Write a sequence for this structure.
């Protein structure tokens, strides 16, 4: 079996959560080349945003993607606040961090769980999802929703934590931290995970820099780039945390970065509860939004998310454009895939945690 | 004539055909429930495999364009038939003796290979690239486990054969009679390497984790079964259910056939099947992920091979 043949993976494939089409050149069981076809879930959201006013757009942007559903409206609000010259109250900055980091824990655990499912280790999958479920409950209790938090508004946030909710959140964090610690240990030691994930889909640090990768994918290859540290927004400059990096640049290393980031996120949540000042949660009275343009960026669970907003003095964006982390990260797939086995395809695709609905909107 | 009738009954109803099918499906339902409980899920009803079959039976079958329709639809029947015959050849202590008319343990050995061959042919007949990958995976796994299992069978046959004054005993009935007289091989340390080799063979043959590589859902979309639907898919499900019964039954016959006669013997057999299936299949599937094909091939060639050789050498040397 030395002849090359084409293997279609997608557009709908059980191992891919979203539609994406890979045409993979295969020699026997080894991957020789890769061709990505995208655009199956294009919904024209960039155009839609130009037909809605700013407040309506927050709701729309929340629905770009379910897993980064909080990062989109937050970043959009940040860009808008820059143009309108709104200073958000200190308490709102902390609350934005809380919303963001809660989503990050869930999102990272979800990806790590899928990894276990792909290697056929469903017990571990169930175990991680069970832990993630606690975070889902947290979201439902505090925000009223399990996925779309509807946490943001222009000039601040739409939710507040009273004493009761604060102590609830604190208690849940204390419950989840040891569980995530256990998961961390499992991924470090389990034989199935080690034999399937280590040395698979390797990406060197220089390649990661060359392709301008972001998020856990870049950090898994040892690139220490995190928007929360490099260009702090919200309350991140007042919080104490380290950027997690891996060294191997393989699937395993990226998974470990995600688990450790979930641990960091839980720690950030705890710090927020301690350091959060009292005060209003939203700037009062929206000013007129003048004509102008702004760029805002934040660290979504998958990496750097950049929003560009241009206004023309009306209540609608003249242009809204965003670059999502998956757009950068999937360019690394051909490099990661080459020379690996067919059985590794889903692992490698999952390891960049692609968010197709964000990328193709 | 009554001999022939009896043989037909044995193949179609008991212990082949119907009985093997029901046993296999019950084992599967039970195993799924245990697995669910181990993963802290509720799990499906115990009779879910029966419901699944009933559902598939009422559906239409789609034959993919470009597939040879005759081969495509004949293969599942061949698989089920081979397993019905194989099931009739598995003796149940005190209840059923392997009929001489069907052949000895070597015939059974070949029959056990038929499901894998059927799956490979079905995969390549359906013309899907995923099935083609599954074909090569199934083939390499089979190449890896067939050798060692032959060594195991040879070991046992020689041990029993020598005690009978000959060289080799190829009848499962003789093997069982020997164990009933001298004690089960399960408790004999000399036979433990062979037992271990068989325990590795058994998940590989049944396509259970960590060897569920040819049918891996998240890698090759159920592999050979990708293009199958409706009653034909149901036949494949029947085949794999019966195969589970046959392979577990073979293991019981080879290593722990001891049981009283009559209805109690049948109950013992069924009970042993359930224990093996819940301990072997369910626990294995919950505690492990899938190997990659190259890893599995290396593992299957090296470990059961060594174990099989060791047991053969030990038996040749001692008896």
């Amino acid at each position: 079996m030395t002849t090359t043949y084409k293997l279609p993976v997608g557009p709908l494939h059980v191992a891919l959560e979203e539609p994406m089409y890979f045409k993979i050149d295969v020699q026997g069981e080894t991957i020789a080349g890769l061709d990505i076809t995208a655009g199956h879930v294009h919904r024209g959201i960039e155009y839609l945003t130009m037909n809605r006013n700013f407040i309506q757009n927050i709701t729309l942007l929340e629905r770009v993607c379910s897993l980064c559903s909080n990062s989109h409206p937050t970043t959009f609000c940040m860009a808008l606040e820059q143009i309108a010259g709104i200073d958000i109250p200190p308490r709102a900055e902390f609350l934005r961090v809380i919303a963001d980091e809660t989503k990050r824990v869930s999102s990272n655990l979800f990806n790590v769980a899928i990894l276990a499912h792909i290697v056929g280790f469903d017990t571990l999958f169930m175990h991680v999802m069970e832990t993630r479920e606690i975070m889902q409950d947290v979201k439902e209790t505090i925000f009223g929703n399990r996925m779309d938090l509807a946490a943001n508004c222009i000039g601040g946030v739409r939710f507040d934590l009273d004493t009761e909710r604060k102590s609830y959140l604190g208690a849940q964090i204390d419950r989840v931290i040891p569980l995530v610690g256990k998961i961390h240990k499992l991924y470090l030691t389990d034989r199935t995970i080690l034999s399937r994930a280590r040395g698979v889909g390797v990406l060197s640090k220089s390649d990661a820099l060359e392709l301008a990768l972001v998020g856990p994918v870049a950090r898994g290859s040892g690139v220490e780039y995190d928007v929360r540290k490099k260009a702090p927004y919200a309350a991140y400059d007042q919080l104490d945390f380290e950027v997690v990096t891996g060294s191997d640049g393989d699937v395993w290393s990226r998974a470990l970065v995600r688990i450790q980031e979930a641990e960091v996120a839980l720690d950030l949540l705890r710090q927020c509860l301690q350091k959060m000042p009292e005060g209003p949660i939203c700037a009062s009275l929206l000013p007129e939004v003048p004509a102008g343009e702004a760029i805002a960026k934040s660290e979504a669970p998958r990496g750097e998310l950049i929003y560009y907003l241009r206004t023309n003095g009306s209540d609608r964006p003249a242009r809204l454009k965003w670059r999502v982390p998956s757009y950068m990260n999937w360019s690394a797939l051909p490099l990661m895939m080459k020379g690996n086995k067919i059985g590794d395809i889903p692992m490698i695709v999952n390891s960049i945690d692609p968010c197709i609905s964000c990328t193709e909107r | 004539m009554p001999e022939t009738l009896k043989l037909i009954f044995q193949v179609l109803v008991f212990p082949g055909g119907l009985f093997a099918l029901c046993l296999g499906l019950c084992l599967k339902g039970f195993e799924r429930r245990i697995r669910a409980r181990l993963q802290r899920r509720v799990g499906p009803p115990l009779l879910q495999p029966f419901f699944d079959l009933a559902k598939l039976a009422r559906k239409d079958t789609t034959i993919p364009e470009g597939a040879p329709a005759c081969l495509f639809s004949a293969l599942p029947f061949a698989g089920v038939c081979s397993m019905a015959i194989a099931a009739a050849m598995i003796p149940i202590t005190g209840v059923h003796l392997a009929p001489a008319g069907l052949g000895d343990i070597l015939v059974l050995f070949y029959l056990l290979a038929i499901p894998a061959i059927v799956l490979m042919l079905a995969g390549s007949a359906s013309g899907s690239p995923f099935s083609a990958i599954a074909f090569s995976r199934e083939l390499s796994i089979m190449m890896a486990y067939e050798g060692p299992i032959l060594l195991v069978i040879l070991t046992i046959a020689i041990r029993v054969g020598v005690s009978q004054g000959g060289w080799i005993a190829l009848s499962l009935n003789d093997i069982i009679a020997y164990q009933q007289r001298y004690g089960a091989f399960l408790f004999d340390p000399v036979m433990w390497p062979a037992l271990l080799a068989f325990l590795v063979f058994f998940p590989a043959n049944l396509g259970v984790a960590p060897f569920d590589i040819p049918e891996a859902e998240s890698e090759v979309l159920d592999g050979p079964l990708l293009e199958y639907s409706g009653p034909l898919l149901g036949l494949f499900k029947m085949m794999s259910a019966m195969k589970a019964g046959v392979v577990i039954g073979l293991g019981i016959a080879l290593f722990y056939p001891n049981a009283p006669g009559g209805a109690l013997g049948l109950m013992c057999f069924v009970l042993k099947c359930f224990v093996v299936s819940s301990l072997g299949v369910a626990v294995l599937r919950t505690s492990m992920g899938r190997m990659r094909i190259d890893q599995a091939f290396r593992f299957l060639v090296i470990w059961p091979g060594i174990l099989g050789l060791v047991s053969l050498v030990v038996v040749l040397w001692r008896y």
Remarks:
- The first strand of chain A starts at residue 4 and ends at 9.
- DSSP finds 15 helices and eight strands in chain A.
